[in-house]
Amino acid sequence: MNKSILNGLLATAGLALALSAAAGTTHTMQPLLLAHAGHAHAGHGQAAKHDAAAFANAKVSETLSVSQCWIRAIPLPAPSAGYFLVKNGGGKEAKLVAAASSTYGMIMLHQTTHEGGMSRMSETHDIAVPAGGELLFKPGGYHAMLEKPSEAPAVGSKVGIDFLFDNGEKAHAECDVKPANTKGH
Ligand SMILES: [Cu+2]
Fold first, then answer.
1. Enclosing domain of residue 69
2. Is the pTM higher than 0.85?
3. pLDDT(21) > 60
């Protein structure tokens, strides 16, 4: 077999594996792609609403934090997903409204739901974290959808993500880049 054809096959197989892994489930690749196509346009309004200025103007929170963050290493140009723990040490409920990173042109907040043996992802907004509580973003549940990558971060490297809350505060996390087939935290 010609070497370039072999490389092409390997790249395609890697992408399929990565896309299946990104869903955090064992379903086939097609529903995942359809799920993405179905809501891809919906993200634009949200991205515009929380532009770079919203993040720049936000003050670093003393009560809200994001930790244990990791993302999947996915070949370009496919989107990746990020998972993390949001902690709210304050006395009021806070809502996560947006996320941003210099490595990705757009980050959307997604939730994976399961119906009749199928899983699908949908965009979600204003994810509430109760006062004194925490919320884990994990495979098969809430996650950050990392769209429009400017590079494919290497396994073992870190990617910074900023998180914006409805009270005008922000939190930063350095996310570990893990292999595409990583199962969970
Ligand atoms: Cu998603």
1. 3-178
2. no
3. no
